Amino acid sequence: MLVHPVFLIFLVPLTSSKRTPPKYTIDLDQHPSQRWNQVIKDHLEFLPGVVEESNYPAPYTIHSRTSGPSNTQNPYFSRKYIPKPLQPFVWWVASKVDRFFSTDTRQELEGIARESGLPLGEIVGLNILYDIAAFDRRHIFGLGCTSIVAQNEKGEIFHGRNLDYDMTGLLKNLTVHVDFMKNGSVLYSGVTFALYNGILTGQRPGAYSVSLNARYSGAYIDNILMEIYTKFKRPVSFFIRDVLEHQESYTDAVDALSNTHLFSPSYIIVAGTKKNEGVVISRNRWSAASVYQLNMDANQWFLVETNYDNWKKQGDNRRITAIQKLKEIGKINFNEKSMAEVLITSPVKNNLTVFSSVIQPKNPEIFDSFTWVWD
């Protein structure tokens, strides 16, 4: 999360309760256009909030399953996150780029648009929001996250994740936990949002887990050039889901996430199942700027990433607070409860935190038991 110091007073969390997000199965053997139907149907009551955020005018009706207004309208998020001169191009891209996606991805998006009644361009725009907004924009108060990888004295790996976002109230009602099934078995899992078929927080059971934190680097023209170069085929949330689906091992996942060209800069955090299998990949658009690894032999038993390069000055206190808490707890008996304790410490958890997850790929059920939406 990118935060000006003047805003830090607002990041102290108020008294809040937690709940488990609803759980769904996405059957990858089913036709892509039908996979998300139940998720959308169960969340229709919350979709008018998306329309309001997107500033769609009357007489558009959310439940009509009609095509809605023209896809060329500028939505709320483009006015907030994208420089004004660039907005016409960005929204045109959002309404056109689905043709470059894989067949499965495109058909899933078409099915989500059909069931929600929202225009396809709006659905695409929501799914590529991170990619078109990830440039150096320190004056904007917006996207963010905290991700932690830690291992205890036994070499057991734990992955902690807080997702922070400034549309917090809306996203809390849309947060879902999803198992992606293939041939009757769970291939991978993720915490995501209704209307969003990408993955920013996920696990391949028994192999590895992945989370993405926003990184703001370069000018917005860099994003445009990479979008053109990659032919719009690789929004980061779609790519992470593709890695979870096709890369079977921690090593292969780290290699793909480090070296594949992407639209936008990012921090990608990966945890495995064996000693020292934990890494923070600070991504440029072309490749990794840094790959920072766990190293128990050097007493580097944890890694903490927020939204700043770990080799530079931090812009807020989330990372230093998490580090202090990890040192206080120590590695001797560190476990999933210890990680949860770090995640709920203020300002690591703040009133922009949508959900928290603790993941241990070696024990996949922990992802289910330790994921909470904060109300």
Automatic annotation (TrEMBL):
One of its GO terms (biological process) is fatty acid metabolic process. Residues 145-312 form the Choloylglycine hydrolase/NAAA C-terminal domain. Residues 1-17 form the signal peptide. Its main location: other. Pathway: Lipid metabolism; fatty acid metabolism. InterPro entries: Acid_ceramidase-like, Acid_ceramidase_N, CBAH/NAAA_C. It is found in: Lysosome. Pfam families: CBAH, NAAA-beta. The keyword Lipid metabolism applies. Residues 20-47 form the Acid ceramidase N-terminal domain. It is an enzyme of class 3 (hydrolase). One of its GO terms (cellular component) is lysosome. GO terms for molecular function: fatty acid amide hydrolase activity; N-(long-chain-acyl)ethanolamine deacylase activity. Its EC number is 3.5.1.60. Keywords: Glycoprotein, Hydrolase, Lipid metabolism, Lysosome, Signal, Zymogen. The keyword Methyltransferase does not apply. The active site is at C145 (nucleophile). Heterodimer of an alpha and a beta subunit, produced by autocatalytic cleavage. Belongs to the acid ceramidase family. This is N-acylethanolamine-hydrolyzing acid amidase.
